[in-house]
Structures are given as structure tokens and as C-alpha cells.
Amino acid sequence: xxxxxxxxxxxxxxxxxxxxxxxxxxxxxxxxxxxxxxxxxxxxxxxxxxxxxxxxxxxxxxxxxxxxxxxxxxxxxxxxxxxxxxxxxxxxxxxxxxxxxxxxxxxxxxxxxxxxxxxxxxxxxxxxxxxxxxxxxxxxxxxxxxxxxxxxxxxxxxxxxxxxxxxxxxxxxxxxxxxxxxxxxxxxxxxxxxxxxxxxxxxxxxxxxxxxxxxxxxxxxxxxxxxxxxxxxxxxxxxxxxxxxxxxxx
Length: 250
Hints:
By secondary structure, the protein is of the alpha+beta class. The protein has one domain (9-246): Endonuclease/exonuclease/phosphatase (Deoxyribonuclease I, Chain A, 4-Layer Sandwich). It has six helices and 13 strands. Strands 1, 2, 3, 4, 5, 12 and 13 form a seven-stranded mixed beta sheet that branches. Helix 1 (31-41) crosses helix 2 (57-68) and helix 3 (134-150) runs parallel beside helix 4 (169-177). The protein is globular, with a radius of gyration of 16 Å. Residues 20-236 form the Endonuclease/exonuclease/phosphatase domain. GO terms for molecular function: endonuclease activity; hydrolase activity; metal ion binding. Its cofactor is Mn(2+); Mg(2+). It holds the Pfam family Exo_endo_phos.
């Protein structure tokens, strides 16, 4: 059983923040199973991909947040899919939803971004879902890094569905500038595609250099996370990371 991932905490010099990245396939599957998985992971922040984007999407987002014991922060249709949820623990300093340049014939993509404060620790958060086409995806990866820097805080996290593997150039672009959570401190399961599908790691949590990665991976075996719920919830597996974020000077 996986029970060694650090719990959320706040100290004088740092805060431990649990970040979950999860492609929820527009809540087209078992929402009860989805909420149970999220609750069992006990995240402070959830970076969602493929949030509902169309008719009554705000109502669907509120339903998921309520069922998961979280609150809506930003994103959804306004970011063309990426969304951020959180507990009441962080103070939301600001948010911005960004639509990325679109290639004709392909889906509109966007970013959900926020600056969250945990005591004296501030964390920039970017939730993303990148293109299936290599050239567009690489350009989007560069924009993700630019937007993270533009948040103007010393510590940040990027979480999402990259549609790229660790040997791909967009994954490599992000891993070259940020810490790839799984590569730094692997925990749980590596591959993020649905159980039974070809093994791939296409979902990830990245952190800036000053953040300490305490563990990152798919929470297979975590108490309360059942294989049946993972299969029923959506077509991706979640990635959970525990991060120690340094406090800013008083």
C-alpha cells in the first residue's frame, strides 16, 4: 500500500502542497468514482484537463467540486478545457484563463492559471492540455513556460496532459526547464494511460527549481483509490505530487 506520500502541512519556512493532475474526459464517465479517487488523493490543488466546456459547464464544474470536497478556482470553458480546483486551504491571489493560438482544423486549446498562497508560500499553477500534433504542441509548450514565468512568483507548477512522452520534444522542452516530478522522485505507478491500454506516460507534474519534489506518480495502491474506480472514472490515470514550496521572506 502507498501511504508514504507526505501530507499537506505548513511550517515557518515552507508548505507541503499536494497537487493532482487529472484528465476527466468531460465527466462523461462515472462521476462518483471520479470524486472518490480525487478525495482519496487528498489534494490541495487539482489541475483538471478536459473539464466540461459546453452546455451548463459551470454547473458540472460545481458538481465535481462539491462531490470532491473542493472549490472551483478558474478555467473550464473559459480555458477550453483546463481547470483548477482547490481546497479552502490556499488564498487565491489571482487567476487568468488563456486561449492559445489555434491551428485550423484542430481543437482550441488553452491554459488555466492561478497564483495561490499557502501561508507565506506562494505557488504559480498552470493546468494544460496540449495538442495531438507535434508542431503545434511544441509551440504550446513554449507558451506554457512563458505564462508560468509571467505569473511573477518564484515557485510554480505545471500539470497536465501533454499528449507527449518523455522522449518527445515537447515533454523534453518542459523537463529541460522544470523538474519532472516522476523523474525526480518516483512514487506509485509511472504510466498514466487507462489500465489495459498501451503503457505511456503522457500526463505529468512539473515544478520549478526551488520546489522540492517529495514524491510523484499515479496513486495505484493508495488507501481509498481502488482499481475499479480508476477504471470507471475516466480514460486517464491521475498523477499526484507532494511538493515542498519554500516560504517567501517575511
